[in-house]
Specification:
Rossmann fold; 6-stranded parallel β-sheet; two-stranded antiparallel ribbon; globular; binds magnesium ion
């Protein structure tokens, strides 16, 4: 059964798009949400909007700390589900176009070690002001998640990916099963093409698609 389990971050592990929340802090939430939706639904290539979007938000370390103080952002039940996966000896990864500095505290709370967080990086001044992002990282480009997942997968038959957007769906050929997660937002292209699609907002609904029957019996 599956040994390596890859989760997208925004709208999959957490109930929001963290970059949109950072945009709200800047007062440009509406504008940025339009760009996010267009790229998550595959209407525009990620490289056309992503760096522009991040540059508009210009997330300082102070803004990111404020984000980290928001209560109850995890998808319901996700802490329990990741705990079960770790208990069963699974390697749980986060694979995201988001940034280390944004994702790391959430990964720590889920017990996911830093070497299994696959993310892009942001640059800041010593005072914590935004300098830029690593636009050379594959994750800033269309198909980048597929490139990065291929660097971590040992065996396709033992790998599963869970995500909400078309950028996650691009990993489908690399894994045995792609689970579309619609518990936060339902994207029709993902629903149509995923091997399995979950609309339950509670993460526990994922378990039968990640575990064998024997493993399910042990819960
Ligand atoms: Mg997502």
């Amino acid at each position: 059964m599956y040994k390596q389990i890859f989760f997208d971050f925004d709208s999959t592990l957490v109930k929001l798009e963290t970059l949109d929340v950072l945009a709200d802090m800047k007062g440009i939430g509406e504008e940025v949400r339009g760009l996010t939706e267009a790229s998550m639904n595959g209407l525009v290539p990620i490289e056309d909007v992503f760096e522009k979007k991040v540059g508009m938000i210009a997330p300082s370390l102070q803004m990111i700390s404020t984000l980290h103080e928001l209560p109850q952002v995890f998808v319901e039940g996700i802490e329990e589900v990741i705990g079960i996966l770790h208990h069963l000896g699974k390697e749980v990864f986060i694979l995201t176009s988001n940034f280390d500095v944004v994702v790391a505290p959430y990964a720590r709370r889920l017990g996911i070690p830093a070497h299994r967080v696959v993310a892009n990086e942001l640059f800041h001044t010593d005072e914590g002001e935004y300098l830029g992002m690593n636009s050379r990282n594959a994750l800033a480009h269309t198909g980048g998640k597929r490139i990065m997942i291929d660097q971590h997968i040992r065996s396709k038959n033992e790998a599963v990916m869970i995500g909400d957007s078309v950028t996650d769906l691009a990993c489908q050929p690399s894994v045995h099963r792609f689970v579309g997660f619609g518990g936060v937002v339902v994207r029709e292209t993902v629903r149509a093409r995923a091997d399995v699609f979950i609309e339950d907002s509670h993460a526990r609904a994922l378990l039968p698609h990640l575990l064998s029957q024997e493993e399910m019996k042990c819960l």
